[in-house]
Design brief:
single chain, 309 residues, alpha/beta, two-stranded antiparallel sheet, 12 helices, 43% helix, globular
């Protein structure tokens, strides 16, 4: 009989490529991961791994087994959801991941609703960039999370995860007041008007950083990045100080203190950021995950666009 814990390790190896990366993600030692994978090969009765330098490649049999592992792990999530539904009331920890603007503008109201409806449930919020959510969910560090995608940075397919749409929001170019004439409604023209201006982006490796860089590239230039800041109120403060321009989402504008009249001009761009609820495949029916979904939908501000619009 194949050990499901070892199947989980094999799936993570297929995603991460090295024993060391799997060990770091799942809080094991590399030797422990190697030992467990060797035991899985003995259980399977044929080689599952091929080593090429520091990296490990799955054999065709190993790749095939990963597909079965995805199905097995999804069914286990469904079983856990069924058992949770059979118990009386929701209780215990619910580990929630959310990016900063959602953590500030939406999650607190959702937590109030959860506390009122399910007082024995213990939601635990961890601020997590969407780029890191998939690994955290598969590793079991999170149970549910809010993630986003942009027009220029679509959501990649992540095996073992499912998502549900939550809302969409507009995007704006933030520039110092009086920085130049209005170039018109064309997005490319709006961005190209600042091709020689310093830019303020999020830190590399985040979706927000990739969005700004790709939007500028689509307009025909690469941005000259001066500052790298993740917090939108700080970004807007830097814009107001004449330190550059930036692309910011609607929640980053609406919820930022001192934005109006602070020396920042906001130009709406014909692009959007779309936020979704993410969870492990099979876990969508878990009562705690479903309860969070209901609560967070009720917490979405009315000025944001519902899914499908």
């Amino acid at each position: 009989m194949l050990d499901v814990r070892r199947l989980r390790l094999l799936r993570e190896l297929a995603r991460r490529g090295t024993i060391a990366a799997v060990a770091e993600a799942l809080s094991f030692s590399p030797s422990a991961v190697s030992q467990q994978l060797a035991a899985l090969e003995r259980e399977a009765g044929l080689p599952l791994l091929e080593r090429t330098g520091r990296r490990v490649r799955l054999t065709p049999a190993g790749q095939h087994l990963v597909g079965h592992a995805e199905a097995v792990l999804e069914r286990l999530e469904q079983a856990d959801a069924d058992l949770a539904e059979a118990r009386q009331g929701l209780a215990g920890a619910l580990r929630i991941g959310a990016f900063p603007t959602a953590t500030r503008a939406i999650v607190p109201a959702a937590l109030v609703t959860l506390a009122r409806r399910h007082p024995r449930l213990e939601p635990m919020v961890c601020e997590t960039d969407p780029a890191a959510v998939a690994h955290a969910l598969r590793a079991g560090d999170l149970d549910v999370a809010l993630v986003h995608e942009y027009d220029f940075v679509p959501e990649p397919h992540e095996p073992g995860l499912d998502t549900e749409p939550l809302y969409s929001e507009s995007m704006y170019l933030a520039s110092p007041a009086g920085a130049g004439p209005d170039p018109g409604p064309d997005q490319g023209a709006v961005l190209r008007a600042h091709r020689d201006t310093p830019w303020i982006t999020a830190t590399p490796g985040t979706l927000c950083h990739a969005m700004t860089v790709r939007a500028c590239q689509a307009a025909g230039f690469s941005p000259r990045v001066r500052h790298q800041v993740d917090e939108f109120p700080t970004v807007l403060a830097l814009v107001a100080a004449g330190q550059g321009v930036a692309v910011v989402p609607q929640l980053g504008v609406d919820r930022s203190a001192g934005c109006e009249g602070s020396g920042v001009t906001l130009t709406r761009l014909p692009m959007q950021r779309r936020t979704k609820i993410a969870f492990r495949s099979g876990a969508g029916g878990h009562p705690a995950v479903a309860a969070f979904g209901v609560a967070v939908r009720e917490a979405v501000p009315p000025e944001l666009t519902p899914p499908g619009r």
